[in-house]
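=== RUN LOG ===
request id: a7f3
mode: sequence -> structure
chains: 1
length: 270
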Amino acid sequence: MIITHKLKWDKCLSHQIWPHIEKGWKDEDKPVHFFWGLAGNNIAEIRKCMENKEEYWFVDTGYLTKPIIRYPEPKIVDDKRTYFRICKGSFHTNKGKVNTPERLEKLRRLDIDAEFKGWRDTGKHILLCPSSQTVTYQMNGISQEDWIKTAIQEISKYTDREIKLRNKPRPGNKWWGTDIKDDLKDCYALVTNYSLSAFDALLNQIPVFAEANSIMGPVTSRDISKIEKPLRPGRKTMEEWLKFVAENQFTIKEMANGTAYKILKEQNEN
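=== RESULT ===
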């Protein structure tokens, strides 16, 4: 039984996405839940799934993709080049198989930035990019404000570099209408918990510190005491990781035609 948890707001992208999931996901005669983001009652419903040991999948914006329009209401601009992540039992995926480079190469043909460009080892500041308040509380167990305060304290112990904060751009805040690439200029390293800003850094030669259970985990650092000597994986490792990322995000067409189901079942085979 496929259970797509619908949010009340009729403009939510889940209302566009769920019909494609319902069409393309094979019914395995057991409850399989799908959640879009953490809004509404999703957090409580996810906890119920965990308590009842029922399978659930978390769906949200993709990793290597053309962006959606978020405000004043969300909209998919180009459905052929807009990808969404589908993660089993978590908010990110970081375990699975690396298959052929076919899906990664397709992203590049679609003019989606998915190219590792090497590393640079210069820069004047550390860029701090927290996840949203909701994700930070759910995953780290503290408020976003406390996470920022703790991160700044820890980073300051091990470097004299300036620490710049960049929060999620939202209407009315100081980052609205700005481009993260401007903050990445002269950036030495980016520090986050789960924010996808990590991809902007990793694809623009800047090493990242992120949580181990994020999809960025395999190619990023954890230990802030190593802020001056961050992990910079080799090209082969980065290419294999990018192939893995491409195997865990899908267009709505791929959801509807069964491609997402087939690939993800293979990814999650024991």
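=== NOTES ===
The mean pLDDT is 95.
The two ends are 22 Å apart (CA to CA).
=== END ===
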